[in-house]
Amino acid sequence: MILIAGPCVIESRESVMRIAEALKKYDEEERIDFYFKASFDKANRTSLESYRGPGLEEGMKIFEEVKQAFGYKTLTDVHESCQVPVVAETVDVLQIPAFLCRQTDLLVAAAKTDCIVNIKKGQFMVPADMQYSVLKVLKTRGYERADYETSKKAGVWLTERGSTFGYGNLVVDMRSLPIMRAFAPVIFDATHSVQMPGQGGKTGGDSSFVPYLARAAAAAGVDGFFFETHFDPSLALSDGPNMIRLDDLDKLIGQIEAIREIVEG
């Protein structure tokens, strides 16, 4: 099982190292393929006043420190093609944000690296149409068709993070998981799926629904899970209402693994 976990954004070196230390058990678990996640820049914040992160240079220094201290594989977002070569020197997975999932130049730039490319499904996208974003990466890497095994071999993932439902709400259509899994490994982003956009200049959410959605996705069948986590979400500088507490993550991972064992027979 792929597990992507970490804070929404790099708030400080100290907070990142504290969260990274708490996640060590998952990297040591043989049944889990663990990736530490954080963002050096949240370029899609609702308001100009919202905290974005330390930026590219400082962010990469902190990722290097995490890798040296814990040996983790790492994942972060890239928002512009010019960021890709620099970030690819440090991290293992380049994540394409949901709002940029059709951005051809960004996808092609990411495809030209040796990194895994994780494309987040746009909240506005038909699940089946994500195959064309996958194909942009695959064709750049010399493959001609998008199917599960080809994408797995080529290092291309898709992440489901909910779909826009009217104003100020997201829903997860569990049908999207097998639809997209026909042409790529699928990660379920349980914490972004509970977001409630448009809450007075910021995005709100309700993290109490995270366990329900994660367990449902495990039953539907996915390749991995994405959780933004924090020692105290009420203090988080980004996405706090959607995060799961570090203390609550262990129980949920256990439930997910039990459901996966049943599904996989």
TrEMBL record:
**EC number(s) per entry:** 2.5.1.55
Pathway per the UniProt entry: Carbohydrate biosynthesis; 3-deoxy-D-manno-octulosonate biosynthesis; 3-deoxy-D-manno-octulosonate from D-ribulose 5-phosphate: step 2/3; Bacterial outer membrane biogenesis; lipopolysaccharide biosynthesis
| Keyword Transferase listed | yes
Class in the EC hierarchy, top level: transferase
Q: What is its main location?
A: cytoplasm
Q: Which domain of life is it from?
A: Bacteria
Q: Does the keyword Translocase apply?
A: no
Q: Which UniProt keywords apply?
A: Cytoplasm, Lipopolysaccharide biosynthesis, Transferase
Give residue ranges for domain DAHP synthetase I/KDSA: 1-253
The subcellular localization recorded is: Cytoplasm
Question: Catalysed reaction per UniProt?
Answer: D-arabinose 5-phosphate + phosphoenolpyruvate + H2O = 3-deoxy-alpha-D-manno-2-octulosonate-8-phosphate + phosphate
Family from the record: Belongs to the KdsA family.
> Mind telling me which HAMAP family this protein's record contains?
KDO8P_synth
Q: Which PANTHER family does its entry note?
A: PHOSPHO-2-DEHYDRO-3-DEOXYHEPTONATE ALDOLASE
Would you tell me the protein name for this molecule? 2-dehydro-3-deoxyphosphooctonate aldolase
Can you name the source organism? Hydrogenimonas cancrithermarum
